[in-house]
Write a structure and sequence with these properties.
heterodimer; A: mainly beta; 0% helix; B: mainly beta; 57% strand
Chain lengths: 112, 115
Amino acid sequence: GNSVTQMEGPVTLSEEAFLTINCTYTATGYPSLFWYVQYPGEGLQLLLKATKADDKGSNKGFEATYRKETTSFHLEKGSVQVSDSAVYFCALSSGGYQKVTFGTGTKLQVIP
Amino acid sequence: DADVTQTPRNRITKTGKRIMLECSQTKGHDRMYWYRQDPGLGLRLIYYSFDVKDINKGEISDGYSVSRQAQAKFSLSLESAIPNQTALYFCATSDPTTGRADTQYFGPGTRLTVL
């Protein structure tokens, strides 16, 4: 079956530091890959997505590249802000019904 | 704004009680989902519905039931609540008619505590 593995948190960074959150996946076929973000007290919202190999998703300064050869979709941001503090979920969607499989989430805390 | 809403936002109940969590959406999406979120386990799918007449079990449906009353409403019931059903519950929707079929839109969540 499909699965998503992401690095455990929490990750604590100082403001303006570089962020990487690792994500690898196992899936049949050609999945779409996502990063969702959950701010405190809120539901998840889509941060970015990529639908085929070598695609780069980007949004709000975050980027992730779909690497089929390494089955990875690592999230990066060059300079984090306090407002980026949240839980980040890597996810994939595949198959005819396009159900989404989520990773366990990585909590990011950015300190001033 | 088109939105996904959940009621109640917080609920404390006792073991053995029946409880219903409700989800409504104004996005006009046909597909709706119920997930539960537990620390260290991420989100797990309980039930999903692709239209009013199409309801399917997810990976952890035992102890839960659902009702799709209309395109816009999808309710989750715990027939006899137990403490290990204490979790954060999310409703989500998606739209198969566009190229964004696999993007899901989440409600704000219901925090359920079973004593």
